[in-house]
Design a protein that fits this description.
This protein is an alpha/beta fold. It contains 10 helices and 10 strands. Bound molecules: adenosine-5'-triphosphate (ATP) and magnesium ion.
């Protein structure tokens, strides 16, 4: 459902994403991990069609995003890490607005919007303006908006940030159920526990390249002997220097 070939983004002489090749099949929940600045957000923005690649191609459901952006994007829902929401819309109006962008409206859309709001405990706030929402409430509304038009592919950048434990749990269940029904999700996260328990496959990105990719079992085999949990694997693949440097700073 998502095919990346040689995906590259350069800013001047700096290469943020360097020739990523990746195939995510239908029904898979795929996780992108990597240190700060690894190129996760840049990659996800290119996959969502809001950032132009310097080179390489993105195909969504077999459709080349550069050749037919409207058709490719109609298959997509995107949850950015720093979302923009119109402050002067109510939660319900925002969901109607997003569904409308995808040509969906009417009673079945409204019903779905209400169900999503109820799922995230936003029903009492349905008709309140977004400007009165807390950080987590906005995050939940943005997540709901990616599901309202039931896209085949959802691309999501660090969805767990700012969610309370209950909302985080609901989100995990929602992601799992959505992929079980044959939809595809690609997410980035820094929460290794989330990646480990939720994702079917994981790619560890560093310096704009995929350093390792596979199921947890495959990653375990890739990392040096003795690495069992994802934290071990992640630190081995991306460098464990930080802890030692921290001690040096504290001892100085
Ligand atoms: N508009 C831009 N101009 C110049 N450099 C940029 C721009 N956007 C991103 N970069 C650089 O590209 C690299 C990758 O950034 P990106 O936001 O993709 O990282 P990330 O993996 O999402 O990191 P984080 O975990 O902190 O969210 C960083 O070095 C960043 O400084
Ligand atoms: Mg990021």
């Amino acid at each position: 459902m998502i095919e990346l070939a040689g995906l590259t983004k350069r800013y001047g002489s700096f290469t943020a994403v360097s020739g990523i090749d990746l195939v995510v099949p239908r029904g898979e929940l795929f996780g992108l991990l990597g240190p700060n600045g690894a190129g996760k957000t840049t990659s996800l923005r290119m996959i969502a069609g809001i950032l132009q690649p310097t080179a390489g191609t993105v195909r969504i459901a077999g459709i080349d995003l550069a050749r037919d952006p409207v058709a490719a994007k109609s298959q997509l829902g995107f949850i950015p890490d720093r979302p923009f929401i119109y402050e002067k819309l109510s939660g319900m109006e925002f969901l109607r607005f997003v569904a409308g962008l995808y040509g969906q409206s009417g009673s079945s859309t409204d019903r779905r919007a209400r169900e999503l709001l109820a799922l995230f405990d936003l029903e009492p706030w349905r008709d309140e303006l977004v400007e009165s929402y807390s950080h987590g409430m906005r995050q939940k509304l943005i997540i709901a908006s990616a599901f309202v038009h039931r896209p085949a592919v959802i691309v999501v950048d660090e969805p767990m940030v700012g969610l309370d434990p209950k909302a985080a749990r609901i989100l995990k269940d929602l992601f799992r159920e959505y992929t079980r029904r044959g939809h595809t999700i690609m997410m980035s996260t820094h929460t290794l526990e989330v990646a480990e328990t939720l994702c079917d496959r994981i790619a560890i990105v560093q310096g704009g390249r995929i350093r390792a990719e596979g199921t947890m079992a495959e990653l375990r085999a890739t990392a040096a002997a003795g690495a069992t949990g994802l934290e071990d694997i992640f630190l081995r693949l991306t460098g464990e220097r930080a802890a030692r440097e921290l001690l040096a700073v504290l001892d100085a």
